[in-house]
Amino acid sequence: MADAVTLTDQVEAYHRWKKDLIRNITRYRRWLQLNELLEEDIERHLQRNIRLLVEDELTIAFVGEYSRGKTELINALFFSGHGQRLLPSEAGRTTMCPTELFYDRHARRSYLMLLPIETRNGATSLQHLRYDPDAWETVSLDPDDVESMAAALARVAETRSATRAEAADLGFNDAMLDAAPTDPDRVLVPAWRHAMISIQHPVLERGLRILDTPGLNALGSEPELTVSMLPSAQAVVFLLAADAGVTASDMTIWREHIDTRDADHRAGRFAILNKIDVLWDDPAGEDHTGSAIQRIRENTARQLALGMEDVMPVSAKQGLLARIRDDAALRRRSGMAELEELVSERILGRREQLISGELVTDLKRMLSDNQADLEAQQTALDSELELLEAQGTDRREVADLAEKTRRDYDFFNRRLITLKSSRRLMISQGEVLRNILNPERFEQHAERTRERLESSWTTAGLASAMNGLFEVLENDFNNLMAEGRRAEKMVGSIYRRHSSDSGDRALEPVPLRLGRHLIALRDLRTRADRFRRDPRSLLTQQNRLIQQFLTTIVSEARRIIHRTMDDIDRWPGEALMPLLQHTQQQKQRLETQFKRLRHIVEDEKELRTEAAKLREQREALDQQLRVARKLADRFAPPPGTQLP
Ligand SMILES: Nc1nc2c(ncn2[C@@H]2O[C@H](COP(=O)(O)OP(=O)(O)O)[C@@H](O)[C@H]2O)c(=O)[nH]1
Ligand SMILES: [Mg+2]
Predict the structure, then answer these.
(1) What is the rounded CA–CA span in Å between residue 545 and residue 549?
(2) Per-residue pLDDT, 55
């Protein structure tokens, strides 16, 4: 097992980091509570941060023409510890069924779910069928019995025979299918449309999802795969055969499905030259093989416009064998160790950096605001102490300080009232934003698009219905952005008005950031257009595919709308948070100070005894600051990453 540690270790370390961070957020929450700083907005904000960490997932898609070794590579990378091949991988055009591998963290079970290919005949999109367990055949998997698990998983590659007409109806290109062995008039089609596999596995348990995809010819008949699943994967691993390099159909996949500007892929795109073992043992010798591989690697990098370090030569099959036979030399030769390093450092590492960067920065900012306020409190205590402890201070001087403190308190109290009413104003401004873009309005747009399409089932009808939908949505978005900018300006001027007293520390308004959702919407439009125009997409022939396509686009758009609504719901309450927090804290400090001073003056207290009490308070404050500093150190990015 020793050589397979990198990947699992990285995932494990990240998982530990997340747990620690959640624990530290909870500590921070308690600290805020202790210091009477835990406002409702802050509480909500912290809860959201925790949710982001808990729900964090990473999808790596394996893409390429059939028989490039995608499934074998997944076996070698993730399941070689099982001592045998787990997912079915065979010569020929075997698995044409897209497969998702993950661990179901809610059900906490291992299972296989198969969606029959016949469901393609209905108008229901994959997206909807996901929520219909009756549509799937479910098989329980026993993670302790590898043999039986592999046997169950072999079903993913099952085929059945169909007439040529049936196959065409199901969206298959005749030329890509094998004839049925018993009846030359019939062809073999995959029995399943989609497979979902939940396996208890250390890496999957920690939120990694793997998407194993079929070759090019199958990409056109499943809109969700092309329009949603592939583009939203955080990383793509593109499989090529080392002896062939980039063929024409490889290039088509790369250009149309991977290397597009409208996809996420934030954790990277990588090319794998698989099957280098077919170049081994050449009569011309090792050196010759080595330089041949190097040449293919250079060519591939150039053709795909990737860096050399992003193109890796491996042998998935030999890598898997090496693990099964425990052959270290073969494993080295297979290049699998380097690939594991790539996955763990470049893909997982990059992903961690993305999720952690924003979160850690946010927490550190909140905490440093708190610290700055406590430090201001310290300075104020110090000057009070100085007065009380000085020789010859009389009660009148203390009374003067009490009076000044009261005036300051009044000032901050009034400001807090103003800010609270500004906050109410912002929240009603949020109502305005919500009215421009809301889920009901979106459903009306979607419904109208559906009706338009029903009156004209043609590609031209589809084009005009799609354009209509995106145009009203973009129009709504543009109005929203204009209104959003107005709201942000309001917030900006509130900050400016109140920034005079916060010392040298500039408080920053929380930005609304709606632009990213408009970008997501435009990206979706680009992807929809490309799928629509793709001659392989078969949209021209099949009304039900048009319907599935529309459902996919609508549910993707709906997701964007809901994400936007989340921001609109959250932002108005949060925009003034730093300023409110600061003012609240000042007010609180001055209130305590004033009460204390008044007490000294009115009750004729001994100044020295009071000073001694105050010293104790100052020490308590020191202690709180030390805790805060420790917390700040604990809000660190995960091991091995740096903040951007
Ligand atoms: N020689 C060799 N064959 C491989 C390698 N990787 C996969 N194969 C074989 O190529 C065939 C197709 O592999 P598979 O994983 O099913 O390809 P997929 O269609 O891309 O998922 C199978 O027979 C594999 O055993 C490799 O590294 N070397
Ligand atoms: Mg496969």
Answers:
(1) 6
(2) 79
Task: Show Cβ contacts of residue 172 under 8 Å, excluding neighbours closer than 6 positions.
Answer: 187, 189, 217, 221
Burial of 606 from C-beta contacts in 10 A (0-12 / 13-18 / 19+): exposed
Work out whether the CA dihedral 588, 590, 591, 595 comes out positive or negative: positive
Beta bridge partners of 195: 99, 114
**Residue recorded with tokens 């590609």:** 459
**Its pTM surpasses 0.85:** no
CA-closest candidate to residue 473, choices 431, 498, 497, 438: 438
Using CB distances shorter than 6 Å, the residues near ligand 1 are: 64, 66-72, 89-91, 94-95, 239, 274-275, 277-278, 315-318
Question: How much distance in Å is there from the Cα of 259 to the middle of ligand 1?
Answer: 24
Q: CA 573 to CA 40: how far, in whole Å?
A: 10
* Type of residue at 489: K
Q: Which residue has the tokens 């903040």?
A: 643
Q: Which atom of ligand 1 is nearest to the CA of 66?
A: 19
Tokens of 289: 């093989």
Compute, in angstroms, the gap from residue 442 CA to the centroid of ligand 2: 38
Cα distance between residue 401 and residue 406, in whole Å: 8
Distance between CA atoms of residues 55 and 120, nearest Å: 31
Q: Ligand 1: which of 75, 87, 89 to mutate, judged by most atoms within 8 Å of the beta carbon?
A: 89
Q: Which two structure tokens, joined as six digits, stand for 40?
A: 């409702």
What span, in angstroms and rounded, lies between the C-alpha atoms of 202 and 334? 24
Query: Could you give the maximum distance between any two Cα atoms of the chain, in Å?
Result: 112
The atom number, within ligand 1, closest to the CA of 278 reads 1
- Alpha-carbon span 545 to 548, nearest angstrom: 5
Reference 209, options 351, 5, 65, 353; nearest CA is 351
| 275-290 pLDDT, tens digit each | 999 999 888 888 888 9
Taking only the tens place, the pLDDT of each residue in 440-469 is 999 999 999 988 888 777 778 888 889 999
Q: Name the H helices within 35-163.
A: 40-55, 70-78, 126-129, 146-153
Residue 211 has pLDDT above 90, yes or no: yes
- Mutation pick for ligand 1 pocket among 72, 77, 275 (CB with most ligand atoms within 8 Å): 72
Report how far residue 69's alpha carbon sits from residue 75's, in angstroms, rounded to the nearest whole number: 10
User: Which residues, other chains included, contact 227 with Cβ-Cβ below 8 Å and sequence gap of 6+?
Assistant: 524, 527, 528, 531, 549, 552, 553, 556
